Amino acid sequence: MIGLKEFSTFEVASLFGVLGIALLGLYYAFYLRRQILSIPLPEGKMREVWGGIKEGAEAYLASQWRIIRNMIGVLVVVLFLSVWVVQPSAEATEVFGANAKIIVAVGRALAFLAGAIFSAMVGRLGMRMAIDASIRVADLASKEKAPEALKTAYRAGTVTGMLTDGLGLLGGTLIFISFGKAAPDALLGFGFGGTLLALLMRVGGGIYTKAADVGADLVGKIEAGIPEDDPRNPAVVADLVGDNVGDCAGMAADIFESYEVTIVSSLILGLALASLTGSVKWIVFPLIVRGIGVLSSIIGTAFVKSRNNENPLHTINRGFYTSAAISVVLFSVLAQFYMHEWRAFGSVVIGVILAIVIDHVTGYFTDGAYAPVKKIAEQTKSGAATTILSGLSTGLESSVWSALVIALTIVGAIAIYSGFPPVYVLYGVSLTGIGMLTLTGNNVAMDSFGPISDNAGGIGEMAKIDSKGQAILARLDAAGNTTKAITKGVAIGSAVIAAVSLFGSFITDVEKVRPGTLASGIRVSEPLVFVGLLIGGALPLLFSSRLIDAVSRAASSIIADVRRQFRIPGILEGTVKPDYATTVAICTKSAQKELLPIALLAVLSSVLVGLLFGVEPLGGFLAGLILSGQLLAVFMSNAGGAWDNAKKYVEEGNFGGKGSEAHKASIVGDTVGDPLKDTAGPALNPLLKVINLISVIIAPLLVMDINPVVKYGIAAVILGSLAWLLFFQKGDFRKKAFAQE
């Protein structure tokens, strides 16, 4: 507790109280887990299908971890040694004296490791909980116990939500208690570890799930004319596995790292204000706010109980708004009696409002109850081309409204701290991110509810439960599609706010090391800065291109395998069991091949721009990245969600229903949208934060005098590595793929 000498008794007690709340959140997660696992497992076909899904998901994560652990080992060493290149902060030297360098080196490396492990734990444990819950939801639905099925699906999602809340708050608070004012030196490592793991899990899981989904739909539903999740389709188990490794494990890790990164950025900016004002309240306030959020989520999620077979969305939203109301009331008390000012309270509340508004904007463009999705569904009568055009139009328009909502939010933060120095405004923006993710427990519960319901529907279909049970599962799945789309919108919005906050931290850190370097901000009128802006704006497009191409190539392999198996006598007749394991293995191998190139593109791009052009062009690069990434992520996520729900709208019996020409057109639209909404779009969230975090870490180095030979030598090695990964390695892969064919 050497770092807390300047903190009051109330502040120290509050920090330990927050630590207690983090542990309470973890206890609540394991309490709900025990409750769900106490529901007996069904026997027969359900158990058999569930076993295949569980085995495939565990095999995928084990394979992914073998690749990731080596990368983590290397980066632990790099972060330990980074302190000898980028010196510890003045605050670290003040707190730890002559031992600052070694303490920060160990702290940053261990924090990185903790962030990576916590992120992996959230993804893996959340995925396991989703798998264990889905079979129970299917069984409850088959027994026509709709309220119990909804509660089980939501509470299983809540387990993941509370793990995200609890581990994120536990790690951040422990580091802060250990390092005090020097915490940002270690927290950068914590945030980087969580963000990198989230990126890898998003990329790998996204490629896996959509390759299987696209392959299963195009051959099974269009060519063979069999239903979705039909047990005769060899790709159906891989598709159900993909829901877990992509939507559950990937999304949980994604939200977890947003949770971490907003803490990191708010503490860096809070530290700047503490130095300016002499008060540490600016760095304690965000942590207490996070503690309040966990407590509110525990209470709000407990309110999610179905009443008289009401709309599942109404049930879930009731818990969300309950948590939001409790949070706002407690924030006001904290602001009044601790902060003694309303501005910090206003910034946090704007974040809560932002989450709610983005919920509604995303819901409008992706929910089948509203005009945009109905318009796409109507276009299916004219064929696949008009269906795709209508979905593209919807996605593009939704990006505009989401960008305006985020812009107005930042304007609100500016207005709240009007007349104050810029660092106050940036702090206000970071608090907006804290507020937006206050209800992380609720948001992750809503998101996990989607794949759990989807998997339950698939298990029910393959086990051939009766029509009443399937109707219950279809209703849950429809609600889950909307909650998934909504939480993707929140994830994107929080990623942008977090990236903007880190952008502010980047400017603040540069100014601390060499005052006056960015005194005028990032000047876009400077030609080299504009070059950085262009490169940053282009990077999300390159990143998305790589991922969509990866899904396309993997899906082609799945399609070939499914067609091959359909030619085997007895498969389509249902007398011979398909070889599910082969398609699972194809998906796993395809996803793993992309991890290293994508990770290195994210890690090295900002370093390359900084070394070649300098710190201010790197700032331009970050600005272009954030703008392009936000617009592209929302477009892809919402267009894909709208195509998906347009397909479901047709499947409900509209415009000819299942098997009609309109249905076939809607399937094409959905398969085009799948890699957009579940692979490329969501993967942009961690990309923004990985690059911004690395820029914050290397910022002090870029304003130092570096030997030109060393600087440009390193840049040449990085440039050569990226060129090989992006062009030559990609070409080699294609040659091998064609040779195999």
TrEMBL record:
Reactions listed under catalytic activity: diphosphate + H2O + H(+)(in) = 2 phosphate + 2 H(+)(out)
Cross-referenced InterPro entries: PPase-energised_H-pump
Primary localization: membrane
Superkingdom classification of source: Bacteria
Membrane topology, from the record: Multi-pass membrane protein
Keywords attached to this entry: Cell membrane, Hydrogen ion transport, Ion transport, Magnesium, Membrane, Translocase, Transmembrane, Transmembrane helix, Transport
Enzyme Commission identifier(s): 7.1.3.1
Enzyme class, first EC level, given as a word: translocase
One GO term describing the cellular component: plasma membrane
Pfam families: H_PPase
Essential cofactor(s): Mg(2+)
Membrane-crossing residue ranges in chain numbering: 12-31, 71-90, 102-122, 159-180, 186-203, 259-276, 282-304, 316-338, 344-365, 400-418, 424-445, 490-508, 528-548, 595-615, 621-639, 686-703, 709-728
Site positions (Determinant of potassium independence): 484
GO molecular function: diphosphate hydrolysis-driven proton transmembrane transporter activity; inorganic diphosphate phosphatase activity; magnesium ion binding
Subcellular location: Cell membrane; Endomembrane system
HAMAP family per UniProt: PPase_energized_pump (MF_01129)
Family named by the database record: Belongs to the H(+)-translocating pyrophosphatase (TC 3.A.10) family. K(+)-insensitive subfamily.
Its job: Proton pump that utilizes the energy of pyrophosphate hydrolysis as the driving force for proton movement across the membrane. Generates a proton motive force.
Quaternary data: Homodimer.
Entry protein name: K(+)-insensitive pyrophosphate-energized proton pump
The species this protein was found in: candidate division WWE3 bacterium GW2011_GWC2_41_23
